[in-house]
Design a protein that fits this description.
Number of strands: 0
Strand content: under 5%
Number of domains: 1
Helix content: over 70%
CATH superfamily: MetI-like
Order of helices and strands: HHHHHHHHHH
Structural class: mainly alpha
Distance between the termini: 30 Å
Largest sheet: none
CATH class: Mainly Alpha
Length: 261
């Protein structure tokens, strides 16, 4: 296993220092407000977090939300990548489908959630369908833009080199599309988990959104922030442990693929 470079260690140190400064900023604001029912400080939120974690409610609700986010994210990325690639490659199909894309891009998430609940019912299928439909259009637009930005010279070079379809996909399509996929994934996670919280807030009986709704009704601000921080922490781990390394790897892959061609 290779050791981390000094640049990677420095980036990690800056990340932790930045989080620490945010915590100090939060504590200062809470001290100025001096009203924990409105803006509880880090210590008050930590107590609420611990009590929910020890009781088992926090892990259970977090797992329910993560399951919905994972399924919705996977479906949206798969459908968005396939459709975005087809529209980016075929101009005629893109012209016909563009109004549809515009409609779904501008359809408010709240409207789509309510309609899915009305049409399908107050269940997880409706929740996942609503989130998937809302995010697919965003992935589609990103991937389509990435496909349209492909370098034509590389296609010509691949033709001259007589690369097979598999080799084209591996050495041309994926390296050129990888940065766009990283953008779609990063934006997708940021948007999907927020929409999932709204879905749970409106019509589910479990999940982080359900708990936030419950504690909002009880005016327990510390508990609302504790559940929010729990999921934000998961997203930060995903961002720095999965998405960022994949983005760095894709940049190296693109460079190596161009050298091979």
């Amino acid at each position: 296993m290779s050791e981390k470079s000094p640049g990677d260690r420095w980036q990690a140190d800056v990340f932790l220092l930045s989080l620490g400064l945010f915590g100090l900023f939060w504590a200062a604001l809470a001290a100025l407000k001096a009203d924990p029912t409105v803006l509880p400080g880090p210590v008050d939120v930590a107590r609420a977090f611990w009590s929910e974690a020890v009781s088992g409610r926090l892990p259970r609700e977090l797992l329910a939300t993560l399951l919905r986010v994972t399924i919705s994210f996977g479906l949206a990325m798969a459908a968005g990548c396939l459709l975005g690639f087809l529209l980016g490659r075929h101009k005629a199909l893109n012209r016909w489908a563009d109004p549809w894309v515009t409609i779904f891009m501008n359809l408010p998430a709240l409207v789509l959630i309510v309609l899915c609940y009305l049409w399908i019912g107050l269940n997880d299928v409706a929740a996942i369908v609503a989130v998937t439909l809302n995010k697919t259009a965003m992935v589609l637009v990103t991937v389509r833009q990435g496909v349209q930005s492909f370098d034509p010279a590389l296609d010509d070079l691949a033709t001259v080199s007589r690369l097979s379809r598999r080799e084209r996909f591996r050495h041309l399509v994926i390296p050129q599309l990888a940065p766009w996929l990283a953008v779609a994934a990063r934006n997708g996670i940021a948007v999907i988990w927020k929409i999932v919280l709204v879905v749970e807030f409106l019509g589910r009986s479990n999940g982080v959104g359900f708990r936030i709704h419950l504690y909002f009704q009880q005016f327990q601000t510390a508990h609302v922030i504790a559940y929010s921080i729990a999921f934000i922490g998961v997203i930060l781990v995903v961002e720095h442990a999965i998405i960022h390394p994949c983005e760095v790897r894709s940049a190296r892959w693109k460079f190596v693929s161009k050298r091979r061609l």
